[in-house]
Automatic annotation (TrEMBL):
InterPro entries: Cupin_8, JmjC_dom. Residues 130-247 form the JmjC domain. Pfam families: Cupin_8 (PF13621). Residues 1-19 form the signal peptide. Keywords: Signal. This is JmjC domain-containing protein 5. PROSITE patterns: JMJC. Coiled coil: none annotated.
Amino acid sequence: MLRLTICVIALVSQHVVDSDDHPKGHLQPLGRHRPPVGSIEERASFPTPLEMFEKYVRGSKPVIFRGILEKGMLPAYKLWTDSYLRENYGSEYVSVEKGKKENRKWDMLNITMSEFLDKYQKEDIYMVNDASVSMAEDINMPSMLLCGGFQRVVQNVIMWFSSGGTKSVLHNDGLDNVNCLIDGEKYLVMIDKKLKADVEETGWILNGQYSQVDVEKVDMYKFPKFRNLPWYEVKMQKGDCIFIPFK
């Protein structure tokens, strides 16, 4: 199955010891324990649907498309200002998380788009909402998904929206994801799924597919396998889209 998200995702990253005798990265943000091993493949245009399937979907390989939204494939990229959303979808109800640091407690507000637009610059809230049928009219399917049955397996289109500073739990998804950034910046820490056993050894919530590790302050004693985890760094800018494979 496939998910298209319109935005923010965080995932992970020699035992090195700091001068205070704690393992490097202890009680620091995820990824501070060692430099990244690299980034993922970058492209300036979408592949054909066949190449997309063979190389990235079946090959389970992430890829980022730099500045792709500047080429006009997503009407929402130009249309979705606060005033446009208020005028066209202001009466629609949206799901909003209380807090910008994800905790998977799903403590949600159900308010109108207009109410959210009144609050989001001043309050610690984060919209995570399935785009309505009318909103989806502003969202075209990327050309790399326009044949071979991709359209029939799109499970949902999600809109993520905040004033910035959001953080997700370390997790994986049971779906392939295409994530597009309409505005702002996004920083991703990604771990190859071949390291699944190390990531999931301690504090892994199986039914939610996420870790209990604090992504802002990693306890290297509680999560000792994280001391050596290689990770990949991805920095998304406004106009980028990224493909994140299943799991």
